[in-house]
Amino acid sequence: MHMEPASFPFLSAILLSCIAGMFTILFIPEEKHRLIKQVSAVFSGICLLLTLYVFFAFNRRVGGMQFVENIPWIPSLGISYFNGVDGFSLPNLLLTGIVFFTGVLTMWELENRVKEYFALYFVLVAGVFGLFMSLDLFFIFVWYDVSLFPMYLLIAIWGTTRKEYGAMKLTLYLLAGSSLILPAIIFLWAKSGINTFSFVSLMHPGLFSPADQKFAFLLLFLGFGILAAVWPMHTWSPDGHVAAPHGVSMVHAGVLMKIGAFGVLRVAIMLCPLGWIYWAKLMAVLAVIGIIYGALVGLRQTDLKYVIGYSSVSHMGVVGLGLSTVTVEGLNGAVFQMFAHGIMTALLFSSVGYIYDRTHTKAIPELGGLSRIMPVASAFFILAALAGIGLPGLANFWGELLVFLAAFKVYPLFGVIAVVTLVVTALFMLRVVQKAFYGPQNPHFAGLKDLSPWLGTPRAILAAVLLILGLYPSLLFNVIRTASVPFMHGLPR
Amino acid sequence: MPGSPSHTLDLAAMIAATMLPLASCLVILIAARSRPRLCAALSIGSATIALVCSIALMALNSKMGAPIQFTTDFIASSGLNIGFGFLLDRLNLLMIVVVSSICFLVQVYSLGYMAGDSGFSRYYGFMSLFTWAMMSLSLSASLLQLYFFWELVGLSSYLLIGFWYEKFSATQAGKKAFIMTRAGDTAFFIGILVLFLHTGDLSIANLGSRAPLAHLSPSFLTLCALLIFGGIVGKSAQFPLLTWLPDAMEGPTPVSALLHSATMVAAGVYLFARLFPFFSLSAVAMSVFLAIGTISMLLASTMAMVSRDIKKVWAYSTISQLGFMIMALAAGGYFAGIFHLTTHAGFKALLFLCSGVFIHHFETNDVYELSRRGARRMLIPMVSMVLGAAALSGIPPLSGYFSKEAVMGSLAGLADPVWLAAGLTGVFLTAYYTFRLIFILLFPRKSEVSSAPSHESAPHTAPAMALPLIILATVTAVLGFFETPLKHFLENGMIPGIVTGVRVGAWPHMAALALALAGVALAWTEFGRKGAEQIGFIDRIPVLYRLFSERWYIDRFYALLVDLVVDRGLSRLCNLNDRKVIDGGIEGVCGATVESGKVTAVLQTGMVQYRLIVIFAVLALLSLYYYY
Q1: Judgement on whether residues B509 and B587 belong to the same structural domain of the protein
Q2: What is chain A's pLDDT, residue by residue, as a tens digit (493 residues)?
Q3: Does residue B530 sit in the same domain as residue B620?
Q4: Most buried pick, A133, A153, B41, B299, via CB within 10 A?
C-alpha cells in the first residue's frame, strides 16, 4: 500500500484540538455558559476546518494512506501511535467534523450542567476521530472504548425518555461488542507471528490462514456489527437515540453507528478478506432483514425520535448490504451511504431537537401543523426525510443506487427486496411529515418562534451538504475509489 | 459533433432552459420568500426564457438529421459509467415546446388564481422546481438521468398537491400520489438496474438504435420492458395504479392543469415514446401495454360518468385519454400517440384552467352548484370550456378530433378488432361524460334557479387568467390542421424499419365521429333538452352507480391491503418481535445474570457454616478428580 508521510501532523492536530478544547472548557468557571459554548464552537470549528483541509488536500490521484504519522509506543508489544487516512476513512473523518461542529451549535440553548456536557462531548468526539484515523489495532480498540464511556454519562444525565434504561442498554450492548472485538484483535496479533498491532503490516496477504480469517472475521463482524445496529443486535440503537440529548443523538446516529460499519470494513474486511468472502452471504441476509424490518417497525412508532431510530436501522442495513456484495460498487455505495446517512440523521435529530425544545413533546399525534408555525425548521426536517426516502438530488440516492446495483449483480432477490422497501420507507417518512408538520395548527404551539439565523446555521450546513453531494456525488466518490479499487484489485480470489 | 457554432448555441439554449428554473427555485425558496412579487417575477421570467429557448431550438433544428447529444460521465469514478447530459431529437423538441408553453401559461394564470394566498412565494418556488425537473426530464440523455428527474417531478407533484397542507385531504392526497407513483417507480428502477447490468449502457440514443440489445434473449427484453413500464403505469396513472390522480385534484387548480393533466402525467407516455424502439422489440410486452391502456381508458371513463366534482371529471378523463395514448403507441401508432399527447396537453390544460376560473369565483367544485350559481354567465371561460370539451369529445374541426382519429387509425390496423371496438366505446363514453358536464353547467334546472335567485352581476375574469384561456382556446382550434407537418417532422426522426401505422379504410374514422356525436346526443337528451331531469342512465342502475362512484373498489382494496398486510400484519409482527423476543430475550439474559449473582452471593455472606460446606465440597470434588 502506498504510504505518504505527513508534512505536518494534521491528524494529530485534529485530536489535539478536541483535547485542548476539553481542557479549556474545564478551566472555565461553571456559570459562564455563553463562554463555554463559544469556546466549544471555536474548537469544534477548528476541527471542522482541519478535516476539510485534509479532505481537500488528500491526493486523489495517488490514493493509498496519506497524512501518515507513526511513532512507536510500546515496541516490545508492537504497539505504535500510527495514524493515517485513506479513501475509506476520509469521508468518515469529514462526517465527524461536520456533525461535531453542527452538534455543538445544536446544543446552543443548553442550560443544564453546560460545562460537563461539552467537556464530555469533546471526549466522545476525540474517541471517534481517533478511531477513524488510527492504523494500529490496539489504538482502534482504545479509541472505541474512549468514545463509549462519555456516551453513558451524556445519555444518563442529559437524556430524556427512559434515559437510565437507554444508557444502560447502550453501554451493555457496546461492551458486549468490545468483548468480541478484543479477543479477535489479540487472536490476530498472536497468529500473525510478527509481533505488531500495525494495521498496515497485518494487511499483508497470506499472513493469516483461511480458517483463522473466518474465525476472526466472525468475531469482528459481530462485535462491530452491534455498533452498526446489524439486525438482530439493533434494539439498543433506537432506545439510545431516543434517550440521548439531541446533540448526542446526532453524534450517536450520525457517527457512532458509522464506527461500527467502518470497523467492519477496516478491521474485519481488510484484515480477513477470505473470512469476508466466506461470511458475505450471512452479512447480506442480516442486512436485508434489517432493511425491511427497520422500515416496518418504523411504521408503528409514534415518537419522532423512535421513527428516526428505526429508519437508521433500515438505512444501516443498506450499508451492510453494500459491504456484503464483495464488489467495488458495493464498497463505494456503502461508504457513500455511511456519509450520507450520517448527515441526514444528524439533520433529522437537529431539527427534532429544536422542535422538542419548543414544544416539549416528541409524540407525533400531539404535534401537527408545525409547518405553519415554524416553516424553516419544518423545511429542514422534511428535506432530511426526503433524503431518507432516497430522493434523487439528495446525497442518499447515490449511495443507495450503487448498493442496489451491486446487490442486483450478486444477490438479485435481496436487491428486489431492498428496492421494494423504499416504498415502505417512503410511507412511514411521509406519514410522519403529514402528521407532525402538516394539518391544522395546534393552538398550544401558536406563539412559538421559528429558527433564528444563528440556530438555523447548523441545520443549513447539514442541508447544504446533502444537496451538494446529491448534485455532485463525484466529490466523495473520487475519494472513496482510491481505496476501494486497489483493495478489490488485490483481493485473493 | 459539439464544436460547430450551431451546436454550441443548442447547448447554451438547453442549459438556459433547464438551469434558470433551478436557479429561480433555489433563490425563491432560500432567499426571496418574503417578497411574493419578486418570486412570481423570477419564476415566470425563468419560464419565459425556457419557452423562448425551446422555440429557438425548434426553429434552429427544424431540419435536424441525427439526434444531437452532449454528455459527460457524471459518476464514472464509482464503477458506474453513465452519461449525464442532453439528448436533442425531434421527439423532445416537440415535448419541450409543449412543456414550456404550458408551464408559462399556467404560471401567468396563477398570478390571478393564487393572488393573496399566504403561500404565494412557496407556490412559485415549487413551480420553478417543477419546470426545471420536467424540462430536464424531457432532455435527458440516459435512462438513469431520466429517472432522476422523474422522481423530482414526483416530488414537485407531492409538494403541490399538498400545497394547502392544513387540509387533511390535501396532505393525504399528496402522500397517496407519492406512494403510488413510487410503487410504479420501484419497478422502473429495478428495470433500469437490470438493463444496466446486462448491457452496461443506459444511453437513450443507444437503446433507440437497438444495436446493444441484439444479443439479449426475448424473455429478458420482455421482463425489462414490463419493469420499465411499471414506472409509466404509476406516473401516467394507468391501471392498477390509477386512483391517485383524481385525489390529486386537491391541489390548486393551475397545478392540476399543469402537472396532473398536461405535462407530468404525460411524462409516462413520453417515456413510452422515448423508448418506443426498445419496447417494440417485445411483442408480448406491447400487447400487455395495449391491454393496460384499454382497461384504464374504459375504467376511468365509467368513473367520469358519475362524478359531480368538475375537477374529478377532468381527472378521470385525463386517465382515460392517457390510456388512449398508450393504446395508440402499443398498437404501433408512434405518431398517433404523440400527436394525441400534444393536442391533449392543450385542450386539457384549457379545460382545467376554465374550471379554475369557476372554482376561484364560486369556491365550489360541485357541477350542479356551479350551474345553479350561474357559471354559464362567465363568458370567456364558458366559451373556452365548450371549445375544450368539444375537442376532448373529438368534434371536428378541433384538435382533439384529428388526434383521436389518428389513434383510431392505429387501432384499426391491429389484427384483432376488439381493440378498435374498445377504442370506439371509449370515444362514445368520452363524448357522453364531457357533454353531460357541459349541459349541466349550461342548463341549470329551473326549480333550483328559482329557489336560489342570484343577484350577482356577470362575473368578471381577471386578465391574467383570461389571457391564457384565449391563447389555449386558439391553439385547440387550430392545432389539428398541423397534423401533416407534425407527422413529417416526427416520423423523419424515427429509426427506419419500424412500421408506424398501417393504412386502413375510412370507416373507423366515420364510426368514431358518429359515436362521438351519439354520445353528445345522449347527453343532450338526458341533461340538455328542455325538461330533462338531468339524471344519467347510470344513475338509474344502482349497482353500476355504486361501482363507478366507488372507483371499482380499487381504493378500498389498497386501503385494506396497506392496513391489513402492512400496518396490522407485518409491521405489528416486527414490532412485537422487537419488544417481546429481542428485547425480552436480552432482558431475560440480564435478569438471569443478576439472579445468578444473587445465588452466588449467598456463598459470600460470611457465615462460617456455609464456608465450611464450600471448603468441604471443593475438597471432595478435587479428591474425586485426582482419584480417577
Answers
A1: no
A2: 788 888 889 999 999 999 999 999 999 998 888 999 999 999 999 999 999 999 999 998 888 899 999 999 998 888 999 999 999 999 999 999 999 999 999 999 888 888 999 999 999 999 999 999 999 999 999 999 898 889 889 998 998 878 888 888 888 888 899 999 999 999 999 988 888 898 888 888 888 899 999 999 999 999 999 999 898 888 888 888 888 888 889 998 899 999 999 999 999 999 999 999 999 999 999 999 999 999 999 888 888 889 999 999 999 999 999 999 999 999 999 999 999 999 999 999 999 999 888 888 888 888 888 888 888 999 999 999 999 999 998 999 999 999 999 999 999 999 999 999 989 999 989 999 998 889 888 888 888 888 888 889 999 999 999 999 998 888 999 899 899 988 998 887 6
A3: no
A4: A133
Q: Are residues B495 and B563 in the same domain?
A: no
Is B146 domain-assigned? Answer: no
Q: Is residue B335 domain-shared with residue B296, that is, in the same domain?
A: yes
Collect all residues of chain B within an 8 Å Cβ-Cβ radius of residue A386: 155
Q: Which candidate from A392, A423, A441 shows the least CB-CB separation from B186? A: A423
Q: Are B525 and B564 part of one and the same domain? A: no
The number of distinct structural domains making up chain B is: 2
| Closest listed residue to residue B343, CA positions, set B295, B387, B310 | B387
C-alpha distance from residue B265 to each of A283, B154, B486 (Å): 41, 10, 22
Same domain, B444 and B303: yes
**Where along chain A do its domains lie?**
3-489
Which long-range CB contacts under 8 A does B386-391 form with residues at least 24 apart? Answer: B386/B438, B386/B442, B387/B347, B387/B350, B387/B473, B387/B476, B387/B477, B388/B347, B388/B348, B388/B350, B388/B351, B388/B354, B388/B472, B388/B473, B388/B476, B389/B351, B389/B434, B389/B435, B389/B437, B389/B438, B391/B343, B391/B346, B391/B347, B391/B476
* Burial letters A136-173, b for 16+ CB under 10 A, else e: bbbbbbbbbebbbbbbbbbbbebbbeebebbbbbbbbb
In a domain, B462, yes or no: yes
> For residue B309, is it within any domain?
yes
Instruction: Name the A residues in 300-359 with CB < 8 Å from any B CB.
Output: 300, 327-329, 332-333, 336
Chain B partners within 8 Å of A235 (Cβ): 578, 582-583, 586
Q: What is the DSSP string of A166-221?
A: HHHHHHHHHHHHHHHHHHHHHHHHHHH-S---BHHHHTSTTSS-HHHHHHHHHHHH
Residue B323 domain flag: yes
Q: Which residues of B touch A368 (CB under 8 A)?
A: none
Residue B189, C-beta contacts closer than 8 angstroms, at least 6 positions apart: A404, A419, A422, B147, B231
Number of Cβ pairs closer than 8 Å across A and B? 129
* Chain A environment of B143 (Cβ under 8 Å): none
Q: Cβ neighbours of residue B615 under 8 Å, at least 6 residues apart?
A: none
Predicted TM-score (pTM) of the model is: 0.92
Measured between CB atoms, does A405 come within 8 Å of chain B?
yes
> How close B478 comes to chain A (CA, Å)?
39
User: What is the secondary structure of B488-542 as a DSSP string?
Assistant: HHHHTTSPTT--------SHHHHHHHHHHHHHHHHHIIIIISTT-----TTTT-H
Identify whether residues B564 and B529 lie together within a single domain. no
Q: Tell me the residue range of the domain where B621 lies.
A: 557-627
Domain boundary among B482, B513, B542: B542
Final residue of a structural domain among B542, B576, B602: B542
As for the ipTM of the complex, it is 0.91
Residue B385 CA to residue B434 CA, distance in Å, equals 10
Of B77, B151, B190, the CB nearest to A391: B151
Do B529 and B586 share a domain, yes or no?
A: no
